[in-house]
Amino acid sequence: MFSEIGSKINRLRLDKKLTLKELSQLTNLSVGFLSQLERGLTTVAIDSLDNISKALGVDINYFFTLAKEQNSFIQKSYEREIVFMDKDNFIQFHLSNSLGDKNMFPRLVEVYPKRDNETVLTYTHEGEEFIYILEGILTYYYDGEKTELYPGDSVHIRSTLSHNWENNTNKIVKLLMVSTPNRFHESQQDAPAQKI
Question: InterPro entries recorded for this chain (predicted)?
Answer without folding.
Answer: Cro/C1-type_HTH, Cupin_2, Lambda_DNA-bd_dom_sf, RmlC-like_jellyroll, RmlC_Cupin_sf, TransReg_Diox_bact_type
